[in-house]
């Protein structure tokens, strides 16, 4: 049977470095590599700062993903492989914030929407994945409407600020430098805007973006080519750019720290990382990355456990509805194909009969209409009972019956789209 299979690499088992090493190329390249496999009918990829997840629709999904993980060089110690039902449950939990490093955070829902849209634009998504992701997004919204799972919850960005506050015993009179004005950098700046501190410096390669954010939230925009100067003046640097290389290298930080005795806290929440891990060897430098935010999550976890349990109940309710939806879809695919094949045969044989009759008699519109109505009625009556049986089988999860009918009438439950990007 053609179902969803997935491979999941997340913060639960993997470090930031391990997740970086498991990713090769951009989203479109990975999607096209997967979709070029003749066994893959649909595929989608979720890539965020603390997860790499690949979903495929295939009759041999597990085999495809095992092989792909091997090609990627992914260690068996950090990857999970899920079957259809496990993939559905995981997607619903993920959209609800239950699988996030920061339980209940809302950012993942927007990321799922955006990344799934990338797959749809690439033409690698069909009905099976569209059904799953649409349900997941709807469930994520329901959980946040009906529970308080995100009340008091923090994003990775605000967790980074909390971590700085913990390490330095408060941010009073501290100089903070935020590097990057993308989504994560903006969230960091917003979280800092409510704290009591000396000054927020905001650096970005495009100075105008840094200036706009500084005007909106308070702070001082700085030129990116003066980054070294402002790192030197900072007590805390939180870096969140999308640069493919290190923004802060060891030699630069060594130069900054030469003769400095007060500590410099560097927090790297970028993926790939912005700060060379070797800076941790420099005296008076404290380096933390996304892995260090687990501590903050533990502090907030207890107060959200009650709401998380409510969310889990909703997920299980919706998962059952999703299973039923797939059952109906499977039956509908078979029924649709049966009708399509039968009507095609009816049309061919009816025209053949009309042609034979026309060689002996004149066949007018009235006679043709009688034949059309007759053959249509016969076809519909023949298929009426099988249609009931198929829907009943789907309702009661009789997979054996559905598969037998599919094999009997040579019906493939899914076909690869011809207009998808290869």
UniProtKB/TrEMBL annotation:
**Which residues does substrate bind?**
48-51, 100, 105-107, 111
Q: Which residues form the signal peptide?
A: none
Q: Where is this site: Important for activity?
A: 90
Which intervals hold domain Tetrapyrrole biosynthesis glutamyl-tRNA reductase dimerisation? Answer: 310-411
Per UniProt, where does NADP(+) bind? 180-185
In which pathway does this enzyme or protein participate? Porphyrin-containing compound metabolism; protoporphyrin-IX biosynthesis; 5-aminolevulinate from L-glutamyl-tRNA(Glu): step 1/2
- List the EC numbers from the record: 1.2.1.70
Tell me what reaction this enzyme catalyses: (S)-4-amino-5-oxopentanoate + tRNA(Glu) + NADP(+) = L-glutamyl-tRNA(Glu) + NADPH + H(+)
What superkingdom heads the lineage?
Answer: Archaea
Q: Which residues form the Quinate/shikimate 5-dehydrogenase/glutamyl-tRNA reductase domain?
A: 162-295
The catalytic residues are: 49
Which EC class is this protein assigned?
A: oxidoreductase
Q: Which GO terms describe its biological process?
A: protoporphyrinogen IX biosynthetic process from glutamate
- Kindly list any coiled-coil regions of this protein: none
Known role: Catalyzes the NADPH-dependent reduction of glutamyl-tRNA(Glu) to glutamate 1-semialdehyde (GSA).
Q: What else is known?
A: During catalysis, the active site Cys acts as a nucleophile attacking the alpha-carbonyl group of tRNA-bound glutamate with the formation of a thioester intermediate between enzyme and glutamate, and the concomitant release of tRNA(Glu). The thioester intermediate is finally reduced by direct hydride transfer from NADPH, to form the product GSA.
HAMAP family named in the record: Glu_tRNA_reductase
The entry sums up its family as follows:
Belongs to the glutamyl-tRNA reductase family.
Instruction: Provide the domain comment.
Output: Possesses an unusual extended V-shaped dimeric structure with each monomer consisting of three distinct domains arranged along a curved 'spinal' alpha-helix. The N-terminal catalytic domain specifically recognizes the glutamate moiety of the substrate. The second domain is the NADPH-binding domain, and the third C-terminal domain is responsible for dimerization.
Query: How would you summarize the oligomeric state and partners of this protein?
Result: Homodimer.
Protein name from the UniProt record: Glutamyl-tRNA reductase
Give the source lineage, highest ranks first.
Archaea, Methanobacteriati, Methanobacteriota, Stenosarchaea group, Methanomicrobia
């Amino acid at each position: 049977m053609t179902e969803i299979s997935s491979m999941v690499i997340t913060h639960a088992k993997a470090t930031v470095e391990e997740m970086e090493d498991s990713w090769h190329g951009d989203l479109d390249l990975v999607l096209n590599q997967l979709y070029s496999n003749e066994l893959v009918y649909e595929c989608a990829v979720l890539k965020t700062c603390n997860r790499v997840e690949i979903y495929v629709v295939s009759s041999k999904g597990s085999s495809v993903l095992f092989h792909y993980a091997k090609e990627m060089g992914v260690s068996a110690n950090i990857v999970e492989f899920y079957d259809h039902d496990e993939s559905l449950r995981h997607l619903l939990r993920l959209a609800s914030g239950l699988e996030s490093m920061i339980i209940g955070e809302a950012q993942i829902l927007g990321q799922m929407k955006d990344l799934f849209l990338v797959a749809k634009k690439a033409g690698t998504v069909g009905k099976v994945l569209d059904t799953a992701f649409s349900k997941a997004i709807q469930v994520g919204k329901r959980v946040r409407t009906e529970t308080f799972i995100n009340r008091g919850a923090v994003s990775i960005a605000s967790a980074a600020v909390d971590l700085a506050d913990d390490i330095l015993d408060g941010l009073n009179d501290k100089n903070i430098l935020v590097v990057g004005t993308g989504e994560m950098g903006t969230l960091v700046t917003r979280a800092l805007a409510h704290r009591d501190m000396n000054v927020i410096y905001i650096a970005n390669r495009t100075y105008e973006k840094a200036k706009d954010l500084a005007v909106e939230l308070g702070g001082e925009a700085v030129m990116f080519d003066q980054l070294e100067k402002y790192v030197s003046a900072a007590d805390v640097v939180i870096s969140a750019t999308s640069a493919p290389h290190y923004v802060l290298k060891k030699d630069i930080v060594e130069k900054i720290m030469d003769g400095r005795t007060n500590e410099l806290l560097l927090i790297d929440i970028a993926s790939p990382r912005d700060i060379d891990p070797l800076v941790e060897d420099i005296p008076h430098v404290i380096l933390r990355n996304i892995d260090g935010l687990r501590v903050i999550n533990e502090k907030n976890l207890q107060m959200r456990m009650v709401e998380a349990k409510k969310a889990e109940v909703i997920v299980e309710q919706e998962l059952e509805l999703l299973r039923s939806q797939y059952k109906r879809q499977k039956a509908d695919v078979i029924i649709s194909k049966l009708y399509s094949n039968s009507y095609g045969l009816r049309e061919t044989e009816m025209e053949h009969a009309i042609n034979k009759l026309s060689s002996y008699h004149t066949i007018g519109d009235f006679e043709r209409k009688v034949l059309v109505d007759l053959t249509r009625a016969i076809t519909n009556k023949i298929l009426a009972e099988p249609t009931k049986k198929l829907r009943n089988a789907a309702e009661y999860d009789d997979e054996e019956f559905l598969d037998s009918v599919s094999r009997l009438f040579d019906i493939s439950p899914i076909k690869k789209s011809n207009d998808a990007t290869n």
